[in-house]
């Protein structure tokens, strides 16, 4: 039960990572409209920050700054606000609790990196800490699944297998740390639109399964094997909606990446490289090509949403 007095007047700061999908296998839509997935999530070192401060009972406020802020809703559809309200309703008594949330975004919006889910996960953890609601990690993840399929993974982090519609997560047996280069698109891609295109392109998909070669590569920790095993069933759909992404993927591979894949529903392209030096080189070379809005380096796996400071 929530404490009636503000336990933390200065507020709580939580940082949550972006994800890429090392594998994303998609089945035929279920009766509830969701697609069954077999995915391997991988949390990378690109973070949104969420700060939560005590507010008057039943006051839920939000301010957003940073990357892509003009495309982030600040009303009740924002996943961070939805997370705060959900937690208050289920575990605290909405009329007794309030929060002022501030999001600083570094994860681009509608980029296939689950930035909104990262904010939802961060807000859940920040509010639980602020309001002194003590929940086991699996209970928090269960709550996160009500907000969105990628939220439980944003709480868990690391490298994990996702089943169901992606919300059913379990840590993967994985060795090593990997260097990534992320190339952001000029415009976001709508996830529902990419799934609609997938349904047209693949009217009769096989039931999704996590590829064994990818799991073997993760156990071995070899970037070359992992690079060869990266796979995304949504990639052809994303490429028909954004044909220019083909050139981005090809150019990254020509410039030395050991693997390339569209992340989730896109349009972000993720390139795996051998080491940090290659990552620095690829960022410079890809940026010089002028085919991506922004090119960044990241490492993975990193931990999920955590209280910092
Ligand atoms: P999805 O998680 O749907 O696969 P994505 O990872 O490509 O999508 P997100 O950055 O999560 O992209 O944004 C998807 C949509 O979610 C946005 O277009 C926006 O309308 C909505 N949204 C809600 N809350 C947020 C938030 N805190 N940050 C970004 N987008 C949000």
Automatic annotation (TrEMBL):
Domain named GHMP kinase C-terminal: residues: 216-290
Residues given in the record as ATP binding sites: 108-118
EC class of the enzyme, as a word: transferase
Keyword Kinase: yes
Gene Ontology molecular-function annotations: kinase activity
Secretion signal, residue range per the UniProt entry: none
UniProt xrefs under Gene3D superfamilies: 3.30.230.10, GHMP kinase, C-terminal domain
Domain GHMP kinase N-terminal stretches: 78-158
Catalytic residues (positions): 19, 150
Source species, domain of life: Bacteria
Coiled coil: none
Entry EC number(s): 2.7.1.148
Any matching Pfam family: GHMP_kinases_N
Pathway as given in its UniProt record: Isoprenoid biosynthesis; isopentenyl diphosphate biosynthesis via DXP pathway; isopentenyl diphosphate from 1-deoxy-D-xylulose 5-phosphate: step 3/6
Keywords tagged on the record: ATP-binding, Isoprene biosynthesis, Kinase, Nucleotide-binding, Transferase
Catalytic activity: 4-CDP-2-C-methyl-D-erythritol + ATP = 4-CDP-2-C-methyl-D-erythritol 2-phosphate + ADP + H(+)
Keyword Repressor (UniProt): no
Family: Belongs to the GHMP kinase family. IspE subfamily.
NCBIfam families the record matches: ispE, PRK03188.1
PANTHER family xrefs: 4-DIPHOSPHOCYTIDYL-2-C-METHYL-D-ERYTHRITOL KINASE, CHLOROPLASTIC
Function comment: Catalyzes the phosphorylation of the position 2 hydroxy group of 4-diphosphocytidyl-2C-methyl-D-erythritol.
UniProt-recorded name of the protein: 4-diphosphocytidyl-2-C-methyl-D-erythritol kinase
